[in-house]
């Protein structure tokens, strides 16, 4: 018996999220189909760094599984990519020690949220970015990002449906505001994120750019601990799980 750590990327458009669900197409479900086939019908369970919602993409999702199949390590990547659907690609497979766990040993995650700010929508990018056609105060958005860096209680900026019990204090080590032409990329790096937290913060920063809020409102919003104090949760289409660190 040995344990494999796998790094995978996927286009989330055609999936009902990462986590396996009965009668629904999911990333985990497709991966475990391949493993079941390779193991001649035996179920092999995988464990990921965390689930992503329906429509969310990934450049560096990580999962692990245990197996006793006598397959050379270098063959696993080929086996997966030969059998997986076109919207999933296995980036890397590697052997790890018995105590490795994709979720519990993750020390940092990076998410990126893409906003396309043009005068007209681009139909070919509708599944991969959030599109906003109005003018934005980009300097105000950049300033708002700075307020989120550090340790804060993110109750206001996470879903009221979150199942997390106890503290909602999290640390964002970096929230970079990056511009590439008409693209605005929000780069989040932290030790953990609450349910829909990245999408809610991205929506708030967009609302700052629209003039609905001021960056200086943020400290008071942290104190309120009230999700209804701010606006919408942005669509999952612009969100990417970029990297998981161990």
What would you report as the Rg, rounded to the nearest angstrom?
A: 19 Å
In CATH, what is the homologous superfamily of the largest domain? Pseudouridine synthase I, catalytic domain, C-terminal subdomain
Instruction: Work out the strand percent.
Output: 25-35%
The third-level CATH topology of the largest domain is: Alpha-Beta Plaits
* Shape, per Cα inertia axes: globular
CATH architecture of the largest domain: 2-Layer Sandwich
CATH classification, class level of the largest domain: Alpha Beta
Structural class: alpha+beta
Helix and strand sequence: EHEEHEEEHEEEHHE
Query: How many separate domains make up the residues?
Result: 2
Mean pLDDT: 96
Instruction: Tell me the span between the first and last alpha carbons.
Output: 23 Å
Number of helices: 5
Care to describe what's here?
- The protein is α+β, with helices and mostly antiparallel strands and 246 residues long.
- The chain has two domains: 2-96, Pseudouridine synthase I, catalytic domain, N-terminal subdomain (Alpha-Beta Plaits); 108-245, Pseudouridine synthase I, catalytic domain, C-terminal subdomain (Alpha-Beta Plaits), CATH 3.30.70.
- Helices cover 22% and strands 30% of the residues.
- The chain is built from five helices and ten strands.
- The chain has helices at residues 27-38, 73-83, 138-148, 197-209, 218-224; strands spanning 2-10, 47-48, 57-67, 88-96, 108-117, 130-132, 150-153, 169-180, 183-190, 239-245.
- Strands 1, 2, 3, 4, 5, 6, 7, 8, 9 and 10 form a ten-stranded mixed beta sheet that branches.
- β2 (47-48) and β3 form a beta hairpin.
- α3 (138-148) packs antiparallel against α4 (197-209).
- It is globular, with a radius of gyration of 19 Å.
- The two termini are 23 Å apart.
């Amino acid at each position: 018996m040995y344990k494999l750590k796998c790094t995978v990327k996927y286009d989330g458009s055609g999936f009902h999220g990462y986590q396996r669900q009965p009668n629904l197409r999911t990333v985990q479900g497709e991966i475990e189909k391949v493993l079941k086939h390779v193991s001649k019908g035996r179920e092999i369970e995988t464990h990921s760094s965390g689930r992503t919602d329906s429509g969310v993409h990934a450049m560096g999702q990580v999962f692990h599984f245990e197996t006793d199949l006598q397959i050379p390590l270098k063959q696993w990547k080929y086996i997966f990519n030969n059998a997986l659907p076109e919207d999933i690609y296995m980036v890397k497979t590697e052997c790890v020690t018995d105590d490795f766990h994709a979720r519990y040993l993750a020390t940092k995650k990076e998410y990126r949220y893409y906003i396309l700010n043009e005068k007209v929508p681009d139909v070919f990018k509708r599944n991969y970015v959030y599109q906003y056609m109005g003018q934005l105060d980009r300097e105000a958005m950049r300033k708002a990002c700075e307020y989120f860096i550090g340790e804060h209680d993110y109750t206001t900026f996470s879903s009221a449906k979150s199942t997390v019990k106890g503290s909602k204090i999290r640390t964002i080590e970096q929230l970079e505001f990056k511009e590439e032409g008409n693209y605005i990329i929000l780069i989040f790096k932290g030790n953990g994120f609450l349910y829909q937290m990245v999408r809610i913060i991205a929506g708030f920063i967009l609302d700052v750019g629209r003039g609905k809020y001021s960056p200086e409102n943020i400290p008071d919003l942290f104190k309120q601990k009230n999700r209804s104090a701010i606006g919408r949760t942005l669509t999952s289409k612009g969100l990417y799980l970029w990297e998981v660190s161990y």
